[in-house]
Sequence to fold (237 residues):
Amino acid sequence: MIKAEHLTISYEDKNVIDDISFDLEASKINVLMGRNGSGKSTILNALAGLKSYDGKITSSPRISYLNQNIKTKIRFSVYETILLGKVEDLSLRISKEDKEDVEKILDLLDLHAFRDKSIDKLSGGEVQKVFIGQALIKNPEVLLLDEPVSALDLKNQYDIMKIIRDLSKDLRLTTLISLHQIGLIEHFADHILLINDKKIYKEGCSKEVLTQKTFKEVFEMDTTIKDVDEMRMIYFK
Ligand SMILES: Nc1ncnc2c1ncn2[C@@H]1O[C@H](COP(=O)(O)OP(=O)(O)O)[C@@H](O)[C@H]1O
Ligand SMILES: [Mg+2]
Fold:
C-alpha cells in the first residue's frame, strides 16, 4: 500500500506539489498522469524516499523504483544487471540463493536467451524488461515506474504494460506508473491520478477522469468522446 496525506513538495521554497492526499491499492495499475513539468517524477521521488517533503507518506517498506532515464551505456550482461538489483543486501559473496533468484526472474520475464548478452546490445523493449527484472529481484511490495514505456514502439509498449499488470496482480504489488499514452491508460489503468497545477485535478477510473472537460482544462485540447460497447473512443480535433 501507499498512502500520502497532505503531501507538499518543493524545490528551493517553490511548491511543485501542494497539499495532495491519495491512497493506492495493491494489485491494481495506478497511473500518474499530467503534463510535462506537472510533478510526476517529483511525487515518485518523494514516495521512493529520494526527495524531501512535508506531510505524511505511509508505505509498505520494500519499494522498487525504476527511474525515467535509464543509462544503458554500461556493458553489464542481462544476468549481471538483474543481479545488481540485489546490491543493497548483497554481501561480498554472491550466495546460491542470489543466483536462484536471478534464475527465477529470467524465467518470469522470459529472458534466458539473453542472459549473457551485454545490455547495450539489446533492443529498447528488451532493456526495459531487464530493468523491470532488476526492480523485481528486490522482492518489492511497492513498484514505482517513471514513464517505463516512453522510448518503446507500440508493440513493446503493450507487451511491457501487460507484464507489469500481470506481475502486479500475481505478486500483489502496489504499482504506480507515470504514463502519457492515452491508449495504454484506457487499456491498463485501474485508477488514475491526474496532476495539474500542483494538485490532483481528478482521480478515478478512466471514464471518470478522461473527459472532454479534462482534456480542455488540463491539456488545452478539444475532443469528442464516444462510448461504444464498453470501449471509449477519444477523438482529438
Ligand atoms: N532538481 C530540481 N530542482 C529544481 N526544480 C526542479 C527539479 N526537478 C524538477 N524541478 C521542477 O519541478 C517541476 C516538476 O518536475 P517533474 O517532477 O520532473 O515533472 P514531470 O515528471 O511531471 O514532468 C518542474 O517545474 C521542474 O522544472
Ligand atoms: Mg518526469
Remarks:
- The longest helix spans residues 154-170.
- Residues 11, 16, 34, 36-42 surround adenosine-5'-diphosphate (ligand 1) (CB under 6 Å).
